[in-house]
Amino acid sequence: MRIPAHSVCTAIRDDIVAGVYERGGRLTEELLARRYGVSRVPVREALRTLEAEGFVVTRRHAGACVAEPTEQEAADLLEMRMLLEPLGASRAAQRRTEAHLKVLRGLVRLGQERARRGNSEDLRSLGGWFHETLAQASGSPALIAMLTQLRHKIAWMYAVEAPVSPVESWTEHGAIVDAVARGDSERARAITALHTERATGAHRLRFSGNGDRADRVRTSQQAVNMSGLRH
């Protein structure tokens, strides 16, 4: 049974994000094919896709290698997310379905419950599912694809600290869903912009010009004051 190239691509990408392959390390078709139990054909196709996404580069005399993004390139990704996630929330307010709302509300209930109990282990994955569902609700395949790629690359380049106040963070998630449910695209955009800006401050580069130390991403935005967003 032939394993599709997109499955091989997902597997290699996940391993790059998880740090299985070091930045700058070679990715030989033969070794990859052996690792994932496939022929070299889907591996070759997967490497082309990953190169287009920016995870892989082709070097003369070395072939495919894991990319080595600069600090500026990493910072650009966070800036792009701060622009695109609010757009996605705005579109979701216009195009969401009842199924999207049901999932979003369920995630908010779970997130708020875990946050109140101080159970932080599940909060990161719940937050990822929340933002993935919010993007899906935008109804824009191009935007969904861009946000998905951004999430993968940001997870690869950054470690993320737990929010200082997870309860407040999930209150913001709830406010986003309320705006989306009401079809209030401008409010959904505004709350998501503030939420994303604050979340950016919790990101630390996994690589840095200062040895192994990764610097906190600096933001000019002060902590979000949700009282100013409530009607």
Automatic annotation (TrEMBL):
Residues 2-69 form the HTH gntR-type domain. PROSITE patterns: HTH_GNTR. InterPro entries: GntR_C (IPR011711), TF_FadR/GntR_C (IPR008920), Tscrpt_reg_HTH_GntR (IPR000524), WH-like_DNA-bd_sf (IPR036388), WH_DNA-bd_sf (IPR036390). SUPFAM superfamilies: GntR ligand-binding domain-like, Winged helix' DNA-binding domain. Pfam families: FCD, GntR. It comes from the Bacteria. Keywords: DNA-binding, Transcription, Transcription regulation. One of its GO terms (molecular function) is DNA-binding transcription factor activity. Residues 208-231 are annotated as: Disordered. PANTHER family: GLUCONATE OPERON TRANSCRIPTIONAL REPRESSOR, TRANSCRIPTIONAL REGULATOR, GNTR FAMILY. This is Transcriptional regulator.
